[in-house]
Specification:
It is a single chain. The chain has about 160 residues and is mainly alpha-helical. The chain has one domain: AhpD-like (Up-down Bundle), CATH 1.20.1290.10. It is built from 9 helices and no strands. The two termini are about 15 Å apart. The model has no long low-confidence stretch (mean pLDDT about 95).
Length: about 160
C-alpha cells in the first residue's frame, strides 16, 4: 500500500479508531451516499491524494455515479451536471479543506444552509474532516493508487 510508511500497522490502535470513526460517519450520516462520494473525490483532488482520488472515484462508480460527473468535479462551478444541493456541499467542503485565514464566512455557511438541513451541514462537516484526515495520511505515506482495490472490492468498478 505505502511507499514510505505503513501507518496502519505501526499505529494500529489509532488507525482502527480512525477507521471506526469514518465507518460510523458513513453509517449514520443524513447525507446521501452519492453526495458523500462527490465530496470525498473533490476534497481528495484538492489535497492531491492520488490514492483517495482513485479509491473514491471507483467507489462512486460502483454506487452508480455517472463517469462524466466524476470527470467534471474539478470544474463543478462551470458544469451544469450538479444540483444546487451538491454545489452547496462542494463549496463548503472546499472552504473547510482550504480554510481562509478568517475562517468560514457567514456567507459560505449560509449558502450551505440554504440547501442543506442543519443536521446535513453537521454531518457534512464530519465527512470533510474524515476525508481530509485520510488524504493527509495517504499523501504523506504515498499510498499507491489501486493497491487495495481487490481487498476493498473496488475491482467491480471496472476502472483498474
Amino acid at each position: 500500500m505505502s511507499n514510505r510508511i505503513n501507518y496502519s500497522a505501526l499505529s494500529a490502535p489509532l488507525f482502527d479508531k480512525f477507521l471506526a470513526f469514518s465507518l460510523a460517519m458513513h453509517d449514520n450520516s443524513s447525507i446521501e451516499r452519492s453526495l458523500i462520494d462527490l465530496v470525498n473525490i473533490r476534497v481528495s483532488q484538492l489535497n492531491a491524494c492520488a490514492f483517495c482520488v482513485d479509491m473514491h472515484s471507483k467507489e462512486a462508480k460502483i454506487h452508480g455515479e455517472r463517469e462524466l460527473r466524476i470527470y467534471h468535479l474539478p470544474i463543478w462551478r462551470e458544469s451544469d451536471l450538479f444540483s444546487q444541493r451538491e454545489r452547496a456541499a462542494l463549496a463548503l467542503a472546499e472552504t473547510m479543506t482550504h480554510l481562509p485565514s478568517e475562517g468560514v464566512s457567514d456567507e459560505a455557511f449560509e449558502a450551505a444552509r440554504r440547501e442543506l438541513s442543519e443536521q446535513e451541514v453537521s454531518d457534512l462537516m464530519y465527512t470533510v474532516v474524515a476525508i481530509n484526515g485520510w488524504n493527509r495520511f495517504n499523501a504523506v505515506a504515498r499510498a499507491t493508487p489501486g493497491s487495495l482495490d481487490e481487498m476493498y472490492g473496488l475491482t467491480k468498478a471496472g476502472l483498474s
